[in-house]
Specification:
single chain; 336 residues; alpha/beta
C-alpha cells in the first residue's frame, strides 16, 4: 500500500501569512491564512515594510494553528514547501527563513516553490489535471498564459507587457475612491452598472497572446479627469462596468483562441482576479460553447494561500527536487 505524502506549505509573498498541510497534493488537511488587509487599507496598497513585520509577528501563530486539530504530527510531514518568489523580497524572506529553520530543526527536506506554480496547482486541490492544459493566471502582479504538457512543465505563451490586470483594477479603484483592495469593489459595482463607455481593447499585433492594460487604465483616468473639467457626472457603476468589460473581453478572447490553437484538454484559471465574478461568468459562457473543460477554483483558493504552495511542492518533491540551506528569496523568480 502506497504511503500518503504530507507536505507542509508556507506562503508569505505579499500580505497574507499562510501555512497549510496537504495530502498527496490534492487533499487539504489544514489551510490557515492571516490577512493584513486592514493594516494596508489606509495606505491604499501594500506597504512592504509593514507586510514583513506582520509576517514576523504571525508566522509562529499560523504554523501552530495549521497543526491544531489536524491530527498530523511532525513525524508524518514528508517535506516543507515554501514560496521562494516572486513577491516582496522582505515578505518572502520571512517565509523562506522560517521554512529553512523548520527543515533544519525537524530534519525535513526543503522545497522552494514558484508563487505562480502555486496558483496553478490550487486547481488540482479540486480536480485532477488533464494534459496538455492551458493556465490563465490573473493577479495583482501577473497576467500570463501558460501551456503545461505535463506536471511541473511550464511554457509561457503570453504575458503582460505593462500593468497586470489586478494592478489596473487597483489603480482604477483608487481613481474612483474605492477602498483597497480595489478589485472586489470594481467587480461589485460592475454588476449593477451599465457598459456606457467604450473603453479600448488592447489586442496588440496579430497572433500575440501578450496582454497590455496600461492604455486602458490611462483611458479610464483621462475619462474621469475630462468629465470633471466639463462639470459632467459619471456614475462609478458605469465606469466600473465599462472598464471590466474591456478587461474581461481581452482575457476571455485570448484564452479561448490559445486553447483552440494548442488543442488543450483543459483550461484552468488561477490568481486573485480569478475570483472576479464578471470574468468567471464570461469564461464559463465562452467555454460552455466548446468541448474544452474549464476549471476555476473556489474563491478561497484564488487568493494567496499555503495549500496551493503545498500542492505545487508535492509535485516538485515527488519529482526529486530539493532545495538546500542556501535557498534565498527571489523577488523576480522566473517560472520554468
Amino acid at each position: 500500500m502506497t504511503k500518503d505524502t504530507l507536505i507542509l506549505g508556507i506562503e508569505t509573498s505579499c500580505d497574507e501569512t499562510a501555512v497549510a498541510i496537504v495530502k498527496n497534493g490534492t487533499e487539504i488537511i489544514s489551510n490557515v491564512v492571516a490577512s493584513q488587509i486592514e493594516s494596508h487599507k489606509r495606505f491604499g496598497g501594500v506597504v512592504p515594510e509593514i507586510a514583513s513585520r506582520h509576517h514576523v509577528e504571525q508566522i509562529t501563530h499560523v504554523l501552530e494553528e495549521a497543526f491544531k486539530g489536524s491530527q498530523v504530527t511532525w513525524d508524518e510531514i514528508d517535506a516543507i514547501a515554501v514560496t521562494e518568489g516572486p513577491g516582496l523580497v522582505g515578505a518572502l524572506l520571512v517565509g523562506v527563513n522560517s521554512a529553512k529553520a523548520l527543515a533544519f530543526a525537524k530534519q525535513k527536506p526543503l522545497v522552494g516553490v514558484h508563487h505562480i506554480a502555486g496558483h496553478i496547482y490550487a486547481n488540482r486541490l479540486e480536480k485532477e489535471f488533464q494534459f496538455p492544459l492551458l493556465a490563465l493566471i490573473v493577479s495583482g502582479g501577473h497576467t500570463e498564459l501558460v501551456l503545461m504538457r505535463e506536471h511541473g512543465s511550464y511554457e509561457l505563451i503570453g504575458e503582460t507587457r505593462d500593468d497586470a490586470a489586478g494592478e489596473a483594477y487597483d489603480k482604477v479603484a483608487r481613481m474612483l475612491n474605492l477602498p483597497y483592495p480595489g478589485g472586489p469593489h470594481i467587480d461589485r459595482l460592475a454588476e449593477i452598472g451599465e457598459e456606457t463607455i467604450d473603453f479600448p481593447r488592447a489586442w496588440l499585433e496579430d497572433g500575440s497572446y501578450d496582454f497590455s492594460f496600461s492604455g486602458l487604465k490611462s483611458a479610464v483616468i483621462n475619462k474621469i479627469h475630462n468629465a470633471k473639467q466639463r462639470g459632467e457626472t459619471l456614475k462609478n457603476e458605469d465606469i466600473a462596468a465599462s472598464f471590466q468589460a474591456s478587461v474581461v473581453e481581452v482575457l476571455t478572447a485570448k484564452t479561448l483562441r490559445a486553447a483552440k490553437e494548442y488543442n488543450v484538454s483543459q483550461v484552468i484559471v488561477a490568481g486573485g482576479v480569478a475570483a472576479n465574478k464578471g470574468l468567471r461568468k464570461e469564461l464559463k459562457a465562452a467555454f460552455g460553447k466548446t468541448d474544452i473543460p474549464l476549471l476555476i477554483p473556489n474563491m478561497k483558493l484564488c487568493t494567496d494561500n499555503a495549500a496551493m504552495i503545498a500542492a505545487a511542492g508535492t509535485i516538485a518533491f515527488e519529482a526529486g527536487r530539493r532545495s538546500g540551506m542556501d535557498l534565498n528569496a527571489n523577488a523576480s523568480l522566473l517560472l520554468k
